[in-house]
Write a structure and sequence with these properties.
- The complex is a heterodimer of chains A (315) and B (597).
- With 315 residues, chain A is α/β, with parallel strands linked by helices.
- Chain A folds into two domains: 225 residues, 3-Layer(aba) Sandwich (Rossmann fold); 69 residues, no CATH class.
- Chain A is 32% helix and 22% strand.
- Chain A contains nine helices and ten strands.
- Chain A has a six-stranded mixed beta sheet, with helices on both faces. Chain A has a four-stranded antiparallel beta sheet with strand order 2-1-4-5, covered by helices on one side.
- In chain A, strand 1 and strand 2 form a beta hairpin.
- In chain A, helix 2 packs across helix 3.
- Chain A is globular and about 70 Å long.
- The relative contact order of chain A is 0.13.
- In chain B, the strands form four sheets. In chain B, strands 2, 3, 5, 8, 9, 10, 14 and 15 form an eight-stranded antiparallel beta sheet that branches. A four-stranded antiparallel beta sheet of chain B has the order 1-17-6-11.
- Chain B folds into three domains: 58 residues; 305 residues, no CATH class; 139 residues.
- The longest helix of chain B has 35 residues.
- By secondary structure, chain B is an alpha+beta fold.
- The chains are: A alpha/beta (315), B alpha+beta (597).
- At the A-B interface, helix 2 of A face helix 3 and helix 6 of B.
Chain lengths: 315, 597
């Protein structure tokens, strides 16, 4: 795999009108993003995630250091032919309709009219906004605005997609769809860089992450490696009887291993929510008691979102 | 000076101003870059300039069109077309103020629709163009544009084109509406005034009371110095020299129309029912042939229609020559015609004498030239009175005006007498005036869009308003200051610094030392700065559709044809601002972080 993004000693200091340093937003950041991976930039508010993205896109000028993206310097406009960017808020033109929005952004690329038309239809389908394509964006809900924002980011079928808080403001269903879409992009060989402080979302989709704090890089690595609890093992079986559990305990004791916990695993709130919505659509007017909903992952229950128990979505 | 020569000269000035400004910006860029990047500055600056040249030369028409369309839709959906309601109001209620009998001129009708266009379209074009890009930066919608393969130059040009398109639609719609209103509202009896007069203006000089040449006439104490005066029954004269006359066109006309709009200044009541009168003389200064028209003309001060103030000078005038006296003029062609006429008269006299002698049965007397007292020949005004011997003035006609009323004065201005060629259509002239307004609006859009690239909306608007004020009022003032500074330099008074020094030290002379040289250089630089400032600020009076002292001919409400040279001037001004403004706008967007702070 080759590096799609190379950041070397990138620093950014915001200054006041007189040029005096106000905030050090980034402090000598160095990292690479490899082709085909989903990379997460994490950190609390003001940690430098968005600043990093904006420096990469040429919206901000680094105080020092370099950032190359697809082999070109960050200020090079040509790199943008292969990039898609979804900003933190959907900074779109609210007076345009959904259709016009995609049309406008599409025309900024080297695409034929026929290509653009086809791509537009695909994206409107993908982000499920076809029904509102002729409405002005000022009439859209926040979720719809995020979705059309994503569509504009994908209009050029980019190789590298930069997503700033992609799931912010989305309801759980749209959130789930967004995460599926990100995974789908990875399947197509695209590279995705996303900033978020919604850790569960990052955990669901990212291969590698970097955690920033006050402009400093604190953690960088593979999500699985970073989250693994060393010195403990976990087994998952179908439901065990009391006897079977005792036998397992005996076998473990024979090997000098303690059984620390044996209980029914819980699902995530997101999973419960999605399943409830799905069941409600199939059985309208019904109220569900605890435990009544089908168990297992939503994916197993033929969910369009593809969420799995324990939050693990990666393929 | 020919128009092409002036154009060439202005192009030179353009390069001086644009080159000077570019040099100044580059200097600032070098200093800032050195402070920020130290030894890496030359490489960074070089790369930025190369990128700039590339971005400015290779723009995508498709992307520009997309941004222009976005800008148009933005303005449209923000309901800028509501401005049409203002004009609807004018059109609906304007008619209330005119009754058939109330006005004897079309000027108020034309002003009613043209003047509001300035008051509405100018602020509107500023509001539209000065606020778009800052709003884009503030709302960060520009982030989704500049993260696409869009060059900053394409944003600047696209925005300019978009705003221009929306303003074009508005100007066309308003112009059309106003034109239809005019056609419907102007009463039938005033419709003959709906023409575009084609004036040929002359240069005005004077003779004073003693007949001595003077650049100005008599000052009658009128605080408004627009007109200068000649006194009746003295040798005081107002003399116009009309150069570059199109003789071909004039010869096709039955007579030579001279339109005047003099002003009378009475020192005694006189015969109040009789208007102050004047007499007109045509002069060929080279041959010294003078033809005074026998008719007395009245100063028609209170007549609205220009047609009623036209003096029709016949193409041929009778000249009576006393044969045996030496003429004051020296014109071989005319002399030949006189001689031919004398010969013809002599021949007739001889025939008559022969007949008389035969009848009286005597020998005929010898008839000689002495027997012919005077002959009358036709003088062809455009051949005999037009002087084409003066280099660089083409065919020139000199007209002299004398006031014939004792103790009364006639006030004149260079534009008060002109040769009125065949009238052109009012509609064509109206279109030209509207194109002028449109070009002005486009110029404002260019200036507004550019300033919005480096300052916020309110500041950009103020900046443009300042430029408009400068363009209207300061170009003339700067010219005066520049001339004054040059005159001071020529006459040894020195520039501002030198003059101040002399005042403070009370010494008329300066020592010949290094300090004097430095002062003189600074003064020279001040004059150059005034020159550049004068050239850099557009002379907006040339876009006017209202009468001004300097640009009377641009007043369409008075029915003057807007000259083609003015239209070309306007186009060139817009173009000459477009190119440097795009460059300035581009670098303003490239060198700033597009992040709202």
């Amino acid at each position: 795999m080759s590096a799609v993004i190379e950041i070397r000693n990138l620093s950014k200091i915001y200054r006041d009108f007189w040029g005096r340093p106000k905030v050090k937003a980034l402090n000598s950041l160095s990292l690479d993003v490899q082709q085909g991976e989903i990379f997460g930039l994490l950190g609390p508010n003001g940690s430098g995630k968005t600043t990093t993205l904006k420096c990469l896109l040429g919206l901000l000028f680094p105080t020092s250091g370099t950032a190359t993206i697809l082999g070109k310097p960050s200020h090079d406009v040509e790199k943008n032919e292969r990039i898609g960017y979804l900003p933190e808020e959907s900074y779109l033109y609210k007076f345009l309709t959904g259709d016009e929005t995609l049309d406008f952004y599409g025309r900024l690329f080297k695409m034929s009219a026929a290509e653009l038309k086809k791509r537009k239809e695909e994206l409107l389908d993908l982000v499920k906004i076809k029904h509102a394509r002729h409405r002005q964006l000022k009439e859209y809900s926040k979720g719809m605005t995020r979705r059309i924002g994503l569509a504009q980011a994908l209009i050029n079928d980019p190789d590298l997609i930069l997503l700033d808080e992609p799931t912010s403001g989305l309801d759980p269903i749209a959130n789930s769809q967004m995460k599926d879409l990100i995974l789908d992009l990875k399947k197509q060989g695209k590279t995705v860089v996303m900033c978020s402080h919604l850790l569960a979302d990052v955990q669901d989709v990212c291969d590698r992450i970097a955690i920033l704090h006050q402009g400093d890089l604190k953690v960088l690595g593979n999500v699985q490696d970073l989250l693994q609890t060393k010195g403990e093992s976990q087994l998952r079986t179908s439901e065990l009887s009391e006897e079977a559990l005792k036998e397992v305990q005996q076998v473990l004791a024979k090997h000098g291993v303690d059984l620390k916990e044996a209980s029914h695993p819980t699902t995530t709130l997101e999973d419960l929510f999605l399943r409830t919505v799905m069941e409600s659509e199939q059985r309208p007017g019904r109220r569900f008691e605890p435990g009544e909903l089908p168990t297992g992952s939503v994916e197993q229950a033929d969910s369009p979102t593809g969420a799995t128990e324990g939050g693990s979505r990666k393929n | 000076m020919s128009f092409l020569y002036v154009l060439w000269q202005q192009l030179g000035y353009w390069f001086i101003v644009v080159g000077g400004a570019a040099g100044a910006f580059l200097l600032v860029g070098i200093v800032v870059s050195l402070l920020q990047h130290g030894s890496a500055a030359p490489a960074i600056l070089g790369a930025t300039l190369v990128r700039g040249v590339k971005d400015l030369l290779f723009m995508s028409a498709k992307r520009i069109a997309a941004i222009a369309k976005l800008t148009f839709v933005e303005s449209y959906r923000r309901q800028v077309f509501a401005v049409g309601l203002v004009f609807l109001g004018v059109i609906m209620f304007g008619g209330w103020f005119f009754g058939d009998a109330k006005s004897d001129s079309i000027a108020p009708y034309v002003s009613t629709v043209v003047t509001p266009m300035w008051f509405v379209l100018v602020p509107m074009s500023l509001l539209v163009s000065c606020w778009g890009i800052p709003a884009d930066v503030k709302e960060r919608s520009i982030h989704t544009v500049v993260t696409k393969p869009v060059k900053r130059s394409e944003i600047v040009v696209g925005r300019m084109l978009g705003y221009s398109a929306i303003m074009t639609v508005i100007v066309v719609a308003v112009s059309l509406g106003n034109y239809l209103w005019l056609m419907g509202q102007v009463p039938e009896h005033l419709k003959d005034q709906m023409v575009a007069r084609v004036p040929v203006y002359g240069e005005l000089t004077f003779l004073d009371r003693q007949g001595m040449p003077s650049k100005v006439g008599i000052n009658v104490g009128d605080p408004w110095e627009y007109r200068s005066y000649i006194e009746g029954q003295t040798q005081s004269r107002a003399i116009w020299r009309f150069s570059f006359l199109d003789l071909g066109t004039l010869k096709k006309m039955e007579s030579i129309p001279l339109e005047h709009r003099f002003e009378a200044f009475r020192t005694v009541k006189g015969r109040i029912e009789v208007e102050t009168r004047f007499q007109l003389t045509l002069i060929n200064p080279t041959t010294k042939l003078r033809m005074t028209l026998p008719a007395m003309y009245s100063v028609r001060e209170f007549v609205a229609s220009g047609r009623e103030r036209v003096l029709e000078v016949p193409q041929t005038l009778p000249l009576t020559v006393e044969v045996n006296k030496k003429t004051e003029w020296e014109d071989p062609d005319l002399q030949q015609r006189v001689d031919e006429e004398v010969e013809r008269v002599l021949e007739e006299l001889r025939k008559e004498e022969a007949a008389a002698a035969a009848a009286a049965n005597r020998a005929p007397k010898e008839i000689t030239r002495q027997d012919v007292k005077e002959v009358t020949v036709d003088v062809f005004v455009l051949d005999d009175l037009v002087d084409d011997t003066v280099e660089n003035l083409g065919s020139a006609l000199t007209v002299e005006i004398a006031c014939v009323e004792p103790n009364q004065f006639i006030g004149v201005n260079p534009a008060d007498l002109f040769v009125r060629l065949s009238d052109k259509s009012f509609t064509g002239n109206y279109v030209k005036a509207m194109v002028g307004i449109w070009l002005f609006v486009i110029l404002l859009v260019i200036l507004g869009t550019t300033s919005s690239c480096f300052v916020k909306g309110p500041v950009a608007t103020l900046l443009c308003v300042g430029l408009i004020i400068l363009g209207y009022h300061l170009t003339g003032h700067l010219e005066t200051q520049r001339q004054l500074a040059e005159a001071q330099a020529v006459h040894g008074a020195g520039g501002p610094l030198e003059a101040t020094y002399k005042l403070l030290t009370k010494s008329p002379e300066l020592p010949n030392n290094f300090g004097t040289k430095v002062m003189s250089k600074i003064d020279g630089a001040a004059v150059s700065a005034l020159n550049v400032a004068q050239l850099a600020v557009p002379d907006l009076t040339r876009f006017s559709t209202e009468a001004t002292d300097r640009q009377l001919q641009l007043d369409i409400s008075r029915g003057f044809d807007i000259p083609a040279t003015h239209m070309i001037y306007r186009f060139i001004v817009v173009l000459s601002y477009f190119i440097p403004m795009v460059i300035l706008g581009y670098f303003s967007l490239v060198l700033r972080e597009l992040e709202h702070k």
